[in-house]
From TrEMBL:
Record keywords: Heme, Iron, Membrane, Metal-binding, Oxidoreductase, Transmembrane, Transmembrane helix
InterPro entries: Cyt_P450, Cyt_P450_E_grp-I, Cyt_P450_sf
Residues noted as binding heme in the record, renumbered to the chain: C447
Pfam families: p450
Encoding gene per record: cyp94c79
Species this protein is from: Reynoutria sachalinensis
Domain of life: Eukaryota
GO molecular function: heme binding; iron ion binding; monooxygenase activity; oxidoreductase activity, acting on paired donors, with incorporation or reduction of molecular oxygen
Name of the featured protein: Cytochrome P450 94C79
Length: 511
């Protein structure tokens, strides 16, 4: 110590850089080791041993398609990627075991909450135990109330009539291609912000203004999801500690989200919230912790915006490729609602009679679920119903995207878009076991907003299909998705829109 004190400043600087270089070298050696290890992923199943070197994109459109390929080859519909301690299954029996039978052994887990914790905090999608039970009970009471459902329907109807349909009319008059995915994301963001916060970001207004909050929310969602793609958690954690790269941008986006959310909550408390109908105001009656309120409402914002926008986007992708389905939806709506007023929105009772539309939406979600894979972490050693051994701490994932493509679940035509598979001989919609269709989760974590989401999707899709023709632009190949918390089409969904008009007892397309 005395010798160190006698050293001149230049020597101290030399020692600092010397030890720093050693630490940095060790860090990069660790990164290279992990990277090399994860470039060679092994899948063990009863009949195949698959090795992927350098990437799957040369043979498959996307990572979910690669998983689907492996799961279809496995006789148990389960694979284990041992180097990642990750088990992936497309077996309905395994899904039921994880989400219901042995639910307590498969929580979301700490790794999940660490990755998404900066964005979602203690929100319902990243917590277990007491916090999960409390939020689920609170959300169940609120989302199930007649007043909340009525308020949600009023907001939705207003957004469709005042913004969505006029914007589509403008696109039809202009004739230029537009990115429908962007429009549906804007629509869903306006709708869920009005419902959740009682705040209107007006993203869908004419001119499509940029919302700082929406941009920050999109960036934070994407960068949070990309943490899971890092070769090792230490990579993004170190970048966060040093405030570098993607973690610096994530922090800046989160700061914007937090400032807006906290401002809304404080202002709402000042002016009073008891008379307001939005979700935030109703939650404020039960929760005084402003940070906890922020986490809960941001979680609902994420679920209500991204999943709905994704579902509507893939619906129009598939319907545009299947004009016979589009015709049947129009025929059904004409029979239920009449033909003359195509801008009319269906009543709640009429919605219940639109069985073919309901089947078409479920079929679109079967092929392209908004959440393509969902993961849990095992609390203790276990064995799945198909005999797969699970170690404590293992990641165990079920794969809705792959499950929608399994012949043993949906038959040999599982890759076809066929809404009729959801209807009985009388044309009545027939639901299936949610454990073979976990698009809305299942068991104890089944989505509480499922019915409200389906109503939103049906109203939006029907209002556009009745009034407009939507035709895709350019070559249409297998969809590719951007890595994220929900399925987003890479490059968007470019299409041209043409208005349909009632003329001479039938609809014609106005060019």
């Amino acid at each position: 110590m005395k010798a160190l004190k006698r050293m001149d400043p230049l020597s101290h600087l030399f020692l600092f850089y010397f030890y720093s270089s050693i630490i940095i070298s060790i860090f990069f050696l660790l990164i290279i080791t992990v990277f090399r290890r994860t470039r060679r992923l092994s899948c063990k199943c009863d009949t195949c041993r698959c090795f992927v070197t350098g990437g799957w994109t040369s043979s498959f459109p996307s990572l979910p398609d690669w998983y689907t390929h492996l799961l279809r080859r496995s006789p148990t519909s389960t694979i284990q990627i041992h180097v990642l301690r990750n088990t992936v299954t497309a077996s309905p029996e395994n899904v039921e075991y994880m989400l219901k039978t042995n639910f307590s052994n498969y929580p979301k887990g700490r790794p999940h909450s660490v990755i998404l914790g900066d964005l979602l905090g203690r929100g319902i999608f990243v917590v277990d135990g007491h916090h999960w039970r409390f939020q689920r009970k609170l959300a169940s009471l609120e989302l199930g109330s007649l007043s909340v459902r009525s308020f949600a329907l009023d907001v939705l109807s207003s957004e469709i009539r005042v913004r969505l349909l006029p914007l589509f009319s403008h696109l039809a008059g202009d004739g230029s291609p537009a990115d429908l995915q962007d429009l549906f994301r804007r629509f869903a963001f306006d709708n869920i912000c009005r419902f959740s916060f009682g705040v209107d970001p007006v993203c869908l207004r004419k001119g499509l203004p940029v919302s700082e909050f929406a941009e920050a929310f999109d960036l934070a969602s994407r960068l949070s999801a990309e943490r899971a793609l890092e070769p090792a958690p230490v990579v993004w954690k170190l970048k966060r500690a040093l405030n570098l790269g993607s973690e610096k941008r994530l922090k800046e986006a989160l700061d914007k989200i937090n400032v807006l959310a906290e401002t809304i909550i404080r202002e709402r408390r000042k002016v009073g919230f008891s008379a307001r109908k939005d979700l935030l105001s109703r939650f404020m009656a039960s929760i005084t912790d402003e940070k906890y309120l922020r986490d809960i409402v941001i979680s609902f914002l994420l679920a209500g915006r991204d999943t709905v926008a994704s579902a509507i986007t893939v619906f129009f992708l598939l319907v545009a490729q299947n004009p016979d389905v589009e015709s049947k939806i129009r025929e059904e709506s004409d029979r239920v609602m009449g033909q003359e007023d195509q801008a009319q929105l269906p009543t709640f009772d009429q919605l219940k009679d639109l069985h073919y539309l309901h089947g078409a939406l479920h079929e679109a979600l079967r092929l392209y679920p908004p959440v393509q894979i969902d993961s849990k972490y095992a609390d203790v050693d276990d064995v799945l119903p198909d005999g797969t051994w699970i170690r404590k701490g293992d990641k165990v994932s079920f794969h809705p995207y792959a499950m929608g493509r399994m012949p043993q679940i949906w038959g040999p035509d599982c890759l076809e878009f066929r809404p009729e598979r959801w209807l009985d001989k009388d044309g009545i919609f027939c639901p299936v076991n949610l454990f073979k269709y976990p698009v809305f989760q299942a068991g104890f974590r089944v989505c509480l907003g499922k019915e409200m989401a389906l109503v939103t999707m049906k109203l939006v899709c029907l209002s556009i299909v009745r009034s407009f023709d939507v035709r895709l632009v350019g070559p249409v190949g297998p969809p590719r998705f951007v890595p994220g918390l929900s399925a987003t089409l890479k490059g968007g969904l470019r299409a041209v829109v043409r208005r349909r008009e009632w003329c001479g007892g039938r609809y014609t397309r106005i060019r």
